[in-house]
Amino acid sequence: QVQLVESGGGLVQPGGSLRLSCVASGIIFSFYNMYWYRQAPGKQREMVAAITRGGSTNYADSVKGRFTISRDNAKNTVYLQMNSLQPEDTALYYCNAKHSIAPMKDYWGQGTQVTVSS
Length: 118
Known about the structure:
Structural class: mainly beta
Mean pLDDT: 97
Low-confidence stretches: none
Distance between the termini: 40 Å
Radius of gyration: 14 Å
Strand content: over 45%
Number of helices: 0
Order of helices and strands: EEEEEEEEEEE
């Protein structure tokens, strides 16, 4: 059974930082490209950051220079370091795993809430 479990969300003041973690089980983690998405109330889910199995990264323009995605294959974990958080970063953040050569193997976590407010 595949599980993606996110953690690390919470309430933070503008300008603050958080680090999200997503631990995967039930998959061969190193075969998967990993993503962080977010969805704010009333908005569509959007991709925030991606990291390939080879370690290449990609970011949404809105978070470039502030967020960093990384992975630890030994721990089956992907991270999202979020700095200089702003109220517009408030959303439910989801972890997503897509197999690098079999994209129908596509799994989601339940999400972790990030709220940026003073």
